[in-house]
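hey
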């Protein structure tokens, strides 16, 4: 039994492909209700609390000017310790049927999932967390594959808008925020990753103690990319908003 509503997604793929290609500030789509209700309930139940795992990735970072770029973000990619539903969900999102759907909606052929979930997997942001606007690293280490897509599924039931935590998409000149996407439960965001697909959660997360912003993050690659998108290999490219000095 599928954990995602893949057959429904496939029925509207032509319309979604047009919307994806024309989305601003860069190709993306927001899908509400990606998971079945039972899969959503189990994924939320299984998501580990911050103190349930000892070896969360904790990668606080500063940008080149010494400003806070990332803090209080936890990550975990050891799927053997995921709950049964979360582990099965990763496998489904890495499977051939779902890859074919992604290729159709994004127009990117021959997508390759990262079985190691490098930098991805379970993400959890603690109160006060910051993720400065940035473009992601563009090569998969050791494999020389090009990073093409990010897929995020939010697992935050009863999210309060006053807590912030929206995913912001910025224009290529970093002059304006174009999209602000709330991280509500069962919302999936898929977007193309290039050297100027700027996104982030730049304002401190205002959720109360004991609450976190939770998501599953998966990244997809290809062997090569269009000539117009090619740049030298880079790590995360942190950006400043217009009001930041």
């Amino acid at each position: 039994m599928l954990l995602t509503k893949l057959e429904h997604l496939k029925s509207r793929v032509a319309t979604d492909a047009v919307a994806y290609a024309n989305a601003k500030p860069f190709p993306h789509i927001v899908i509400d209700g990606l998971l079945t209700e039972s899969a959503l309930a189990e994924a939320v139940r299984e998501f580990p609390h911050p103190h349930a795992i000892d070896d969360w990735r904790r990668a606080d970072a500063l940008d080149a000017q010494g400003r806070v770029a990332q803090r209080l973000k936890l990550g975990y990619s050891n799927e053997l310790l995921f709950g049964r539903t979360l582990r099965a969900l990763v496998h489904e999102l890495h499977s051939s049927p779902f890859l074919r759907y992604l290729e159709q909606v994004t127009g990117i052929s021959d997508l390759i999932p990262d079985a190691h979930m490098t930098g991805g997997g379970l993400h959890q942001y603690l109160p006060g967390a910051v993720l400065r606007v940035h473009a992601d690293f563009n090569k998969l280490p050791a494999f020389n594959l090009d990073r093409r897509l990010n897929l995020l599924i939010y697992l935050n039931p009863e999210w309060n808008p006053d807590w912030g935590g929206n995913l912001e998409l910025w224009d290529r000149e970093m002059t304006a925020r174009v999209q602000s996407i709330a991280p509500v439960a069962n919302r999936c965001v898929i977007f193309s990753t290039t050297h100027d697909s700027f996104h982030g959660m730049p304002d401190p997360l205002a959720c109360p103690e004991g609450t976190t912003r939770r998501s599953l993050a998966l990244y997809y690659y290809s062997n090569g990319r269009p000539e117009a998108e090619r740049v030298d290999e880079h790590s995360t490219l942190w950006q400043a908003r217009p009001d930041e000095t």
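The two ends are 51 Å apart (CA to CA). Residues 96-106 form the longest helix (11 residues).
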